[in-house]
Amino acid sequence: MLNDADPVESRATSYTTVPAGRDFRSELEIRRSRFITVLRRTDSEDAARSLVTELRKEFHDARHHCSAFVLGADRDVQRSNDDGEPSGSAGLPMLEALLKRETATGGTDLSDVAAVVVRYFGGILLGTGGLVRAYSDSVSTALDEVPLVRRQRLRLCTVAVAHAEAGRLENELRTSGYLLAQTSYEASAAVLTLALEDDPQAASEAADRIATLTSGAATVVRGGTEWVDG
């Protein structure tokens, strides 16, 4: 039996991103101009803009600090900035390099990534087409060097059973391939917490399995969700 605490969300349940906790840097030299690319995982517009601010201070003598970022599992926040380069020649190509990046899923689902390309002008004009290629290649090259990771939204569900049944049920569920987050022992029952793929079928299958293992005595209650790196 399945008891819904809240409705299943309709947005994407997984996406690809860069590892958290560090910056990824690469550099290209194109006709004497230096293009230094920095990638960082970011989960908000403020965090993405903070990266630009940091790099403006670090590379204070550079002519341009162009940026692009994509946020959210559905990639619903997309921003870019040319920072003084001809309109559409820097930020937009950088954004497209992020949006069109093919990942291990076989599709394009890269998100929660901010990219900044710092340019030191080398004295040779590249023209609009040359700038577009330079900024796009800078981001693509940086992404080539990053070990991308999958990020998945899991639905936390709880099952209350008698204390005497908890150990057996835990073992049965683990043997069946389920991920158990924790088990808490309360006065009236032991409460098992499962982390499931966040889709109706996964919850329904778990409910059926637990009903079989407990002869229909236990109920699966859907709780909140949690994003985890795969």
Give the gist of this structure.
The protein has five helices and eleven strands.
Blueprint (SSEs and pairs):
Layout: E1 2-3, E2 14-17, E3 24-30, E4 33-41, H1 45-58, E5 64-71, E6 77-81, H2 91-99, E7 113-120, H3 127-144, E8 149-161, H4 163-175, E9 179-185, E10 190-197, H5 200-213, E11 220-229
Helix pairs in contact: 2-3
The biggest beta sheet is recorded as:
6 strands, mixed
How many helical elements? Answer: 5
Between the first and last Cα atoms, what is the distance in angstroms? 29 Å
Query: How many beta-strand segments?
Result: 11
Rg, rounded, reads 24 Å
Number of domains: 2
> What share of residues is helical?
25-40%
Order of helices and strands: EEEEHEEHEHEHEEHE
**Class from secondary-structure proportions:** alpha+beta
CATH top level class name of the largest domain: Alpha Beta
- Tell me the CATH architecture of the largest domain: 2-Layer Sandwich
Question: Overall 3D geometry?
Answer: elongated
Strand content: 35-45%
**The named CATH superfamily of the largest domain:** Impact, N-terminal domain
Reported by name, the CATH topology of the largest domain is: Ribosomal Protein S5, domain 2
The whole-number mean of residue pLDDT values reads 92
